[in-house]
Amino acid sequence: MSETAILVGASSSWARALVKISPYTFSAIGIAISIGVSVLGAAWGIYITGSSLIGAAIKAPRITSKNLISVIFCEAVAIYGVIVAIILQTKLESVPSSQTYAPESLRAGYAIFASGIIVGFANLVCGYVILPIYLYIGTKKAMSALTRQLLPQRWQS
C-alpha cells in the first residue's frame, strides 16, 4: 500500500504536470493573459482618471478637453497589450508531433508564457500607477485652471 502511495505522489508532482502540458497551451495562456490583464489595467486607469475628469469638468468646464490625455494614455496601455499579443502569436511555429515535448519546444512555450504574464501585469501596474501621476499633474493643472476661473481679470492677455 505504501509503494502505491509513493508512486501516485511521484506521478502527481508539479514538475511532471508542467512537462506534460503542451507548449502550445502555455503559449496560448500567455497570449491571453497579455491581452486580458492589459485591458484590465487600462479599464482600471480609465475608471480612476474618468471619475476625476468628471469632477474636474463640473468645477471648471473649459478644461475638460485638456484632461482627456489621461484617458488616451490608459487606452494606449490596452493597445500595447494587444500589439504584444499579436507579436507573440507570430512567434508560434508548427513543429512535428514527435518534437512537441522536445526541450526547445518547451522552452519556447515557457518563454511566450512568461512574456505574456510580464506584459499583462506590467500594464496592470501601469493602470494603477496612473492615479498618482494623474493626481500630481492633474492637481497642478486643475488648481491653475480654477485660479484662472476665479480671477479672470488677472489672467487675461
Give a quick set of tags describing it.
single chain; 6 helices; 157 residues; mainly alpha; Four Helix Bundle (Hemerythrin (Met), subunit A)
Produce a short descriptive summary.
This protein is mainly alpha-helical. It has helices spanning 2-11, 14-20, 23-59, 69-90, 103-150, 152-155.
Could you please describe the fold and organization of this structure?
- The chain has 157 residues and is an all-alpha fold.
- It is 82% helix and 0% strand.
Draw up the topology in text.
Blueprint: H1 2-11, H2 14-20, H3 23-59, H4 69-90, H5 103-150, H6 152-155
Beta strand count? 0
Level-2 CATH architecture: Up-down Bundle
- Catalogue the unreliable spans: 1-9
Helicity range:
over 70%
Question: Please, what is the average pLDDT?
Answer: 78
Q: Rough shape?
A: elongated
* Beta-strand share of residues: under 5%
Number of domains: 1
**Radius of gyration, taken over Cα atoms and rounded to an integer in Å:** 25 Å
The third-level CATH topology is Four Helix Bundle (Hemerythrin (Met), subunit A)
Number of helices: 6
Helix and strand string, N-terminal first?
A: HHHHHH
Q: N-to-C terminal Cα separation, in Å? A: 92 Å
Helix/strand structural class: mainly alpha
Largest sheet: none
Query: CATH top level?
Result: Mainly Alpha
